[in-house]
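Format notes (please read before filing issues)

Several people have asked whether sequences and structure tokens are stored in separate files. They are not. Every record keeps both together, in the order shown below: the sequence lines, then the token lines. Line labels are part of the format and must not be stripped during preprocessing.
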Amino acid sequence: MINFLKIIFAALFVFMCYKVISTSLESNLFEQWDFLGSIPWMRATLWDFYANIFIITLWMFYKEKSIILKISIVILFVCLGSIATLAYVLVHLFKLKDGEGIKDLLVKR
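Then the structure lines:
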């Protein structure tokens, strides 16, 4: 199961990096912010994003010990979204030792 998760999360990480980079080359978010902000679905998507970031941040605060690391990771979550989230989970997946499973991924060490 852990190897399967590593493959899925790595594939999603690569896909999201590709999507963000290709979209950034095609369209400047800062030039289109006023237009995007006027779309109700865009506002709903942002609220959804921040609700998810809040949930993931609570889990990360539970797992991590250093307050500096916690603050740094929250900044990355907010600025990079799913790219930072996927990277965070991938790091923890690759830190698992042989024989460790999902429970070991989710709980404090």
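For reference, the curators noted about this record: Residues 2-26 form the longest helix (25 residues). The mean pLDDT is 91.
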